[in-house]
């Protein structure tokens, strides 16, 4: 199982801040594609991914048990 | 607010407390940056702002900025507090204090820190305008996503 965290407009688009996905090992790119399809959310190519609170790349490996955060362009400050 | 140098809080940011965190006998200067909620942005009126953070990672990234600062300006000490939740006009969204033996490093490090916050710290701002609401979605904080999502043109402009 993978825990997915959503923020800002993504959270509003999907209607919740957290999703549990019953999938095995995957990559950032594959997970993005899966979410894009499942929840019909656009613009994920501009969203950064953090695996267990560290920024990751498109080809980074995601393992069951990981927490994956979808991080839209940030606007703090 | 606690004694931690890097904090995300949901209560008002107290600048005196931030200054205390970086005070040292060898400091000859302390600079503070106070980011406040602006009422007017390009002719559009803000009623209030709402900030959201991925809190544990945001704290980590603030600490990472602190490490960058202390590497670039070795004699400095920095503390950063960012507030989340609903903020009214003129309230403090972020406070940064930097101490150093001489003022130049304190000024430079402080400006560097706010620029980095806007680039890497997972915090988002939602503008509640008098005619709608928008999650602000670019790192320069001036291109809101018109549809709620960035178009290619919006991101690349």
UniProtKB/TrEMBL annotation, chain A:
CDD domains according to UniProt: Ubl_MoaD
GO molecular function ontology, one term from the record: nucleotide binding
GO biological process: Mo-molybdopterin cofactor biosynthetic process
Keywords (A to Z) from UniProt: Molybdenum cofactor biosynthesis, Nucleotide-binding
Keyword Nucleotide-binding: yes
Any GO CC annotation of this UniProt entry: molybdopterin adenylyltransferase complex
Cytoplasm among keywords: no
Pathway(s) this gene product operates in, as recorded in its UniProt entry: Cofactor biosynthesis; molybdopterin biosynthesis
Pfam families: ThiS
Quaternary structure and partners: Heterotetramer of 2 MoaD subunits and 2 MoaE subunits. Forms a stable heterotetrameric complex of 2 MoaD and 2 MoeB during adenylation of MoaD by MoeB. During catalysis MoaD shuttles between the two heterotetrameric complexes.
Protein family: Belongs to the MoaD family.
Protein's job: Involved in sulfur transfer in the conversion of molybdopterin precursor Z to molybdopterin.
Matches recorded under PANTHER family: MOLYBDOPTERIN SYNTHASE SULFUR CARRIER SUBUNIT (PTHR33359:SF1)
Protein name, UniProt field: Molybdopterin synthase sulfur carrier subunit
Organism: Oceanobacillus arenosus
UniProtKB/TrEMBL annotation, chain B:
Organism phylogeny: Bacteria, Bacillati, Bacillota, Bacilli, Bacillales
Name used for this protein in its record: Molybdopterin synthase catalytic subunit
Keywords: Molybdenum cofactor biosynthesis, Transferase
Role noted for this protein: Converts molybdopterin precursor Z into molybdopterin. This requires the incorporation of two sulfur atoms into precursor Z to generate a dithiolene group. The sulfur is provided by MoaD.
Superkingdom of origin: Bacteria
GO molecular function: molybdopterin synthase activity
Catalysed conversion reaction: 2 [molybdopterin-synthase sulfur-carrier protein]-C-terminal-Gly-aminoethanethioate + cyclic pyranopterin phosphate + H2O = molybdopterin + 2 [molybdopterin-synthase sulfur-carrier protein]-C-terminal Gly-Gly + 2 H(+)
Ranges in a coiled coil: none
Pathway this chain belongs to: Cofactor biosynthesis; molybdopterin biosynthesis
GO BP terms, alphabetized: Mo-molybdopterin cofactor biosynthetic process
PANTHER family: MOLYBDOPTERIN SYNTHASE RELATED
Organism (species): Oceanobacillus arenosus
Family, similarity comment: Belongs to the MoaE family.
């Amino acid at each position: 199982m993978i825990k997915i965290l959503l923020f800002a407009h993504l959270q509003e688009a999907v209607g919740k801040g957290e999703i549990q996905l019953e999938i095995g090992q995957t990559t950032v790119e594959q997970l993005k594609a899966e979410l894009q399809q499942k929840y019909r959310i656009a613009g994920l190519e501009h969203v950064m991914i953090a695996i267990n609170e560290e920024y990751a790349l498109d080809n980074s490996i995601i393992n069951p048990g990981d927490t994956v955060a979808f991080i839209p362009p940030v606007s703090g400050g | 607010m606690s004694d931690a140098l890097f904090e995300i809080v949901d209560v008002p940011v107290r600048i005196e407390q931030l200054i205390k965190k970086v005070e040292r006998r060898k400091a000859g200067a302390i600079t503070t940056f106070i980011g406040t909620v602006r009422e007017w942005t390009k002719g559009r009126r803000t009623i209030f702002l709402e900030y959201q953070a991925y809190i544990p990672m945001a704290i980590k990234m603030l600490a990472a900025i602190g490490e960058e600062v202390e590497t670039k300006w070795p004699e400095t000490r920095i503390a950063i507090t960012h507030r989340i939740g609903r903020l009214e006009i003129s309230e403090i969204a972020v406070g940064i204090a930097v101490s150093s033996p001489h003022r130049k490093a304190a000024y430079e490090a402080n400006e560097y820190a706010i620029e980095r916050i806007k680039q890497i710290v997972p915090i988002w701002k939602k503008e509640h305008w008098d005619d709608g609401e928008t999650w602000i979605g670019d790192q320069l904080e001036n291109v809101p996503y018109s549809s709620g999502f960035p178009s290619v043109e919006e991101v690349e402009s």
